[in-house]
């Protein structure tokens, strides 16, 4: 396998990103890979926001992973910022290759560079493999994640 | 008790907000109520960011609660935004008054107004009273919340 590059996502990557979002037990019913227009509008909003870092992992000119890192300034912990990782997806061909680790390590390093004191994420209760993965990377399952659909 | 107002936080509210952040079993060791300068810098950063909504609840000219709502644009769910609630604090004198409910209901309404499809938050595993509170408000404890200190 060729070298891996992690770089900001661009419009030309959207089709590959949305295919990964849809190729997932939870994502299959929530996405519309045949209509990219809502995703393009969202990408423009993300790109304009300096606290948003949507990246893709590229190998041999192919998008094989994605992750969204959000920097959240705040008052608590003496005015420190934290970061939140969302939308981690790895192409089916790359699972088990260590790419997930590379992407999360990128997010941790970027968070340090942005002076965050904390990196946080939530993972669906059913994704037990993901839970073990995050614990191996040093994360602690210290919180309950609550969601309310609007 | 007088009427309650929920409004954006201002510099003059910082002392009261930080006192609430510090008046908490988890917050006591993490805050510096005697030195507000790092909080003022963070407030300026929050105020300049259109996706950040740091509010205070005020009754009889007294700050009695606070909450931070962050709007996070994203690609998943057809390019929908979500919101994250952080830093919910209620003054000790107001606990049990329904103020927590009022603040979370404000956050839900603001999230709808910002076209968010989802409101999410994490609560420390030890805060079991808070867990019941969020479930009563319609939230589902569907996720595990992972944190990594940097």
From TrEMBL, chains A, B:
Gene3D superfamilies (alphabetical): 3.40.630.30
Record domain N-acetyltransferase: where: 4-150
Gene Ontology molecular functions: acyltransferase activity, transferring groups other than amino-acyl groups
Xref: Pfam families: Acetyltransf_1
Domain of life from the UniProt record: Bacteria
InterPro entries, per database record: Acyl_CoA_acyltransferase (IPR016181), Bact_Acetyltransf (IPR050832), GNAT_dom (IPR000182)
Keyword list, A-Z: Acyltransferase, Transferase
Protein name per the record: GNAT family acetyltransferase
């Amino acid at each position: 396998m060729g070298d891996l590059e992690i770089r900001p996502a661009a419009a030309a990557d959207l089709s590959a990103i949305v295919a990964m979002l849809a190729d997932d037990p939870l994502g299959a019913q929530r996405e519309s890979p045949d209509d990219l227009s809502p995703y393009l509008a969202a990408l423009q909003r993300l790109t304009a926001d300096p606290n948003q870092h949507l990246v893709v992992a590229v190998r041999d000119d192919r998008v094989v992973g994605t992750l969204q890192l959000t920097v959240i300034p705040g008052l608590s912990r003496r005015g420190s910022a934290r970061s939140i990782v969302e939308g981690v997806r790895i192409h089916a061909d790359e699972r088990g290759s260590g790419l997930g680790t590379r992407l999360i390590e990128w997010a941790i390093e970027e968070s340090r560079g942005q002076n965050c004191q904390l990196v946080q994420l939530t993972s669906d209760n059913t994704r037990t493999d993901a839970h073990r993965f995050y614990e191996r990377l040093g994360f602690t399952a210290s919180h309950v994640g609550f969601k309310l659909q609007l």
